[in-house]
Automatic annotation (TrEMBL):
Chemical reaction(s) catalysed: Hydrolysis of (1->2)-alpha-D-(4-O-methyl)glucuronosyl links in the main chain of hardwood xylans
The protein's name in its UniProt record: Xylan alpha-1,2-glucuronidase
Domain Alpha glucuronidase N-terminal: 8-116
Oligomeric and partner information: Homodimer.
Organism whose genome encodes this protein: Dyadobacter pollutisoli
Length: 668
């Protein structure tokens, strides 16, 4: 067993190219850093570690370049001469024979140092380096759905990274490596516990444990946050109520927040799931989400922390459309939230499906900062056995045009605050990390953590650019192999969609969200069955969300509605999201719906074989352990893709009552 998977994209393996090595030698005589600030020390430690790996030498860290050239110089600039977009930005350039990394803040120097290392890991020239970058979003965070007993809700890579039973005394060295990996991407916040929160995290015992983790993260510019159980004043505090308008409840939270800040002076804030899927919340007392959020925000007034309130809500309504729920509940509250509140919205209106239209909340709460919530853990994407590169999912949403202020009103511009002028902007990813040696289970799933982090910093990066970078840092320096792997990654999401939820189908599972169960029609709630979502019947397939159906389309601007409202022109990836289409309808491909569904399901499953071939061909360029790991998972994926295909085909055939087109092999 090697450390290949553990080291993620921070590998720093020796550079073999003699020319590149020679050039790098010229600029690596010393590392000069202005202060002994712990964040700056993280930066110099990392550069030192990086150079020792890449070049095989120990480079001294000094306080000043003293007029010498040939070194790396970290410089805090105070005169604003560099005109950074914000304090966390950095620039890297050659000045008087040195590589100068500058920023207005210590953490900017850390980000710049990682960018410099990335530049060197990808063997680019230093002589004419000019890099300049500032994050577009302020709160760039991972949300861990980790429980206090070490389990992770929807986690597929082992148990929690946080060893609650060992804390605060024992500090697992892995906490620091986690912080390094995140800081290298610009991630600056970590919500440590599950949104289905245990009140236990508000106890003094746990606050002390959390503080120990915060101490490890601090030198990497990462703040810790906690998910809170809204009814904690009752269950933990012993009060008779958790009503947000009750003065005793307000005082309880104020005291709790104060207590937390005594242990963790830079505590990030709270993440709240309330009145959602059975969790308690302000509505239990006839109050609104805004009442609940503002009560917590008041407790944070003396401090820097924020309240991140989730908009993931839907009610059990046999006649309703879950798609519409968050919009209906939250848009009337626009303008009522305290300035310390960010409302966190999942990318799509349902729940992290393999493909969803963007949530109609984006753009429709101009007075409330809306944060983005993406899911990195592959709850609906084949867990850690299926290879799905998620950057295209993130980009599809970020680049979508809401038209709320005319053309160009993309979701990205809402989230980064430029459209509505939000002061606080946020992007969160539900983490896919766990205790397994390689962090994410599937080695290729590391790319999803990486891509999310890079996009929180700069949502304009392309999926391909990020994949190229990740492959070069993580898997191979070989250019041809890089192109081949990147191509496979870029197709992987559509391949998964084809065998799992083609043409805009959604949620063909119940329970653990893994095995195909499109037939599932019994549950305590109608919206927890599979048939609720695909609506297969003898006429056709799909959920009618036009004016003839639930009219969820009305939550979008007319320009967006026009894209999706006509079944003849609606792009096929979204067709069954918005229309109930008859089995015999001819689609733009020239095939009937039934034929097209079959084509996609078969093509999807067959394409996993193609992925296997692509991977086999790069064998010579990949660490043998990582190669074998992915190779084996792809075989499982193929087996399961066929399982999915067969389940769908046989089930839908019972409604379509048509033969499987002869070119396809019949399910056995
Ligand atoms: C999904 C997921 C749950 C999670 C919930 C949420 O429904 O299956 O495990 O708690 O989303 O985001 O709150």
């Amino acid at each position: 067993v090697t450390d290949d998977g553990y080291r993620l994209w921070l590998k720093y393996d020796p550079i073999a190219d003699v020319g590149v090595k020679k050039e790098y030698q010229k600029f690596t005589q010393f590392i000069a850093a202005p202060s002994a600030n712990p964040v700056v020390k993280s930066a110099t430690d990392e550069v030192q570690q990086g150079l020792s790996g890449l070049l095989g030498k120990v480079v001294p860290v000094v306080l000043s370049a003293k007029g010498q050239s040939g070194g790396i110089v970290l410089t805090l600039v105070t005169d604003k001469s560099q005109d950074f977009a914000n304090k966390e930005g950095y620039s890297i350039e050659t000045v008087q024979g040195n590589i100068r990394v500058s920023s207005e803040s210590e953490v900017g120097l850390l980000y710049g140092s990682f960018a410099l290392l990335r530049h060197m890991q990808t063997l680019q020239s230093l002589s004419a380096i000019t890099l300049r970058s500032s994050p577009k979003v302020r709160y760039r965070m991972l949300n861990h759905w980790d429980n206090h007993d070490g389990t992770i809700e929807r986690g597929y890579a082992g148990s929690s990274l946080w060893k609650w039973y060992e804390l605060p005394e024992r500090i697992d060295p892995r906490y620091r490596d986690y912080a390094r990996a995140n800081a290298s991407l610009g991630i600056n916040g970590s919500v440590l516990n599950n949104v289905n929160a245990s009140a236990r995290f508000m106890s003094a015992e746990y606050i002390e444990k959390v503080a120990a983790i915060a101490n490890v993260f601090r030198p990497y510019g990462i703040k810790v946050y906690l998910s809170v159980y809204f009814a904690a004043p009752k269950t933990l505090g012993g009060l008779g109520t958790s009503d947000p308008l009750n003065p005793q409840v307000q005082a309880w939270w104020a005291a709790k927040v104060k207590e937390i800040y005594q242990y963790i002076p830079d505590f990030g804030g709270f993440l709240v799931k309330a009145n959602s899927e059975g969790e308690p919340g302000p509505q239990d007392y006839g109050r609104t989400h805004a009442d609940g959020a503002n009560m917590l925000a008041a407790a944070f007034k003396p401090y820097d922390g924020v309240v991140i309130w989730r908009a993931f809500v839907y009610k059990s309504d046999p006649k309703g459309d879950r798609f519409k729920a968050a919009y209906e509940e939250f848009t009337p509250l626009d303008g009522q939230f305290d300035e310390k509140v960010i409302v966190q919205v999942k990318n799509g209106p349902i729940d992290f499906q393999p493909r969803e239209p963007f949530s109609p909340l984006f753009g429709n709460m101009p007075k409330t900062p809306l944060g983005m919530e993406f899911q990195l853990t592959q709850e609906y994407l084949g867990f850690a056995t299926h290879a799905v590169y998620e950057a295209p999912i993130f980009k599809e949403c970020l680049d979508a045009d809401t038209y709320v202020n005319g053309k160009g009103s993309t979701v990205a511009r809402i989230v980064d605050g430029t459209l509505h002028g939000y002061a606080r902007t946020a992007m969160a990813g539900v983490a896919n990390t766990g205790s397994v040696r390689n962090w994410t289970g599937h080695p290729l799933a590391q790319a999803n953590w990486y891509a999310f982090g890079r996009l929180t910093w700069d949502h304009q990066l392309s999926s391909e650019q990020i994949a190229r970078e990740w492959v070069a840092l993580t898997l191979t320096k070989d250019k041809k192999a890089n192109t081949q792997i990147v191509n496979m990654m870029l197709h992987s999401r559509d391949i998964y969609v084809d065998y799992n939820t083609p043409l805009g189908l959604s949620r063909p599972w119940t329970g653990v969200h893994f095995a195909p169960e499109p037939w599932q029609n019994r549950s305590s709630r109608p919206d927890w069955t599979a048939v609720y979502y695909h609506k297969a019947d003898s006429v056709g397939l799909g959920f009618d969300r036009t004016a003839n159906g639930s009219n969820a389309l009305a939550q979008y601007r007319p320009e967006v509605q026009r894209q999706w409202s006509n079944p003849d022109s609606c792009p096929l990836p979204y067709l069954l999201w918005f229309h109930h289409v008859s089995w015999d309808k001819k689609l733009s491909t020239g095939q009937t719906l039934w034929h097209e569904v079959c084509s996609r399901l078969y093509a999807g499953a067959d394409s996993v074989l193609w992925m296997q071939q692509q991977w086999d061909q790069v064998k010579a360029h990949i660490n043998p352990e990582t190669f074998a790991d992915v190779e084996a998972r792809l075989r499982t994926q193929h087996k399961e893709a066929i399982w999915w295909r067969n389940a769908w085909v046989l089930y839908l055939q019972s409604f379509a009552r048509q033969p499987i087109p002869p070119k396809f092999k019949k399910p056995e």
